[in-house]
Amino acid sequence: MPDATKPPLVQVQGLKMYFPITAGVFRKHVGDVKAVDNVSFDIHEGETLGLVGESGCGKSTTGRAILRLYEPTAGSVKIDGIEIAKADERQLRRMRPTMQMVFQDPQASLNPRMTIAGIISEPLDEHTQLSKKEKLLRVYELMDQVGLNRTFANRYPHEFSGGQRQRIGIARALALNPKFIICDEPIAALDVSIQAQVVNLLEELQDRLGLTYLFISHDLSMVRHIADRVAVMYLGQIVELAPRDAVYAQPLHPYTQALLSAVPEPDPEAEVDRHRILLTGDVPSPANPPKGCNFCTRCPQVKPICHEIEPRFQEVEPGRYVSCHIYQDQNTTAGNTAAPQTELV
After folding, report:
1. How far apart are alpha carbons 208 and 267 in whole angstroms?
2. DSSP, residue by residue, 158-224
3. Which pLDDT band holds residue 290 (cuts at 50, 70, 90)?
4. Cβ atoms within 10 A of the Cβ of 125, count?
5. Cα three-residue angle 18-50-290, rounded to 5 degrees
6. Cα–Cα distance, 330 to 15 (Å, whole number)
7. Of the N and C termini of the chain, which has fewer Cβ atoms inside 10 Å?
């Protein structure tokens, strides 16, 4: 379990990732796609933060901006107390062993011309002075950790299944003994039959090595299984952040309520009684978000103020943060957070 008494391992404040829109012969800057817009959260050492939301909401962009795979437009990112967002190339290279990433598509993230031993040892080539024999021993050790047979070391990625390729990606991420790993939808491209195996492997490695995860996914059932806290993202902004059990038992934000109402119930009787919250309209363009609250064009509980003023992202209960006018300033009234709720069966 994470130790809340220590400073957070990962501190993200006001992170923005805008992609410029240009037009005309001279490529004049005419606007921005606000993929990530003022996102803030902390992750404690040993904790798993689940980041959920529909496709295109900015989850993967957030992960890549945190690791400086994209250059953030604005904001602060500190990992293990060191500023990442504004670090120069030399400082960033020294920090790479601390932070790693497991990508969504194992087929696309592995070099088809390299053997498995070459793929896993590539970080060792870049960041260590180990001898060839020491690197091979480290590769074997990593293959053992992720459940791959050592005899596969000289094979190529196309000779493996999707689940095995994802294990290779995890072994590569572990090569430099990182503290923080971003898992960018690591099970989305895998068969349902092996998704649980990969998630169980990630949990086992976390317990054994003390890893900290940002687990990005649209699979709410899997996030409920692996995450300690859950952040819900909509149109580039986090709308709710709370402990896992609290989010699934009593979601506060109208978008979170709608999102969780779509999760099927394994119990047939409960499934019959499940109340779906159907949102009308389409998700607005991140290049032209609505005035006020980003969710105001689809929210079933919208109020006039929602179309005018952007709600603050604030703590409404201990450990629970919401960006919604329904809850604005209610934290000043003791115990009063009982805003309109849609009960989920």
Report:
1. 34
2. GGS-HHHHHHHHHHHHHTT--SEEEEESTTTTS-HHHHHHHHHHHHHHHHHHT-EEEEE-S-HHHHH
3. very high
4. 12
5. 40
6. 26
7. N
Please tell me the least confidently modeled range out of 108-122, 175-189, 264-278. Answer: 264-278
Check if the beta carbon of residue 104 is closer than 8 Å to that of residue 252: no
Q: Which helix (H) or strand (E) holds 99?
A: strand 99-102
On the 0-12 / 13-18 / 19+ scale of CB atoms within 10 A, 295 is buried
The one-letter amino acid code at 176 reads L
Is it the case that residue 258 has pLDDT exceeding 90?
Answer: yes
- pLDDT tens digit sequence for 65-122: 999 999 999 999 999 999 999 999 999 999 999 999 999 888 888 999 999 999 999 9
Would you place residue 281 in the very low, low, confident or very high pLDDT band (cuts 50, 70, 90)? confident
Residue with tokens 């692996």: 226
Q: What distance in Å separates the CA atoms of residue 112 and residue 231, rounded to the nearest whole number? A: 35
Residues forming beta bridges with residue 21, ordered by sequence position: 31
pLDDT confidence band for 330 (50 / 70 / 90): low
Q: Are 124 and 178 in contact (CB under 8 A)?
A: no
Cα separation, 37 vs 283, in Å, equals 15
The predicted model scores a pTM of: 0.89
Contact 313, 234 (CB under 8 A): no
Give helix 162-174 / helix 116-127 axis angle, nearest 10°: 20
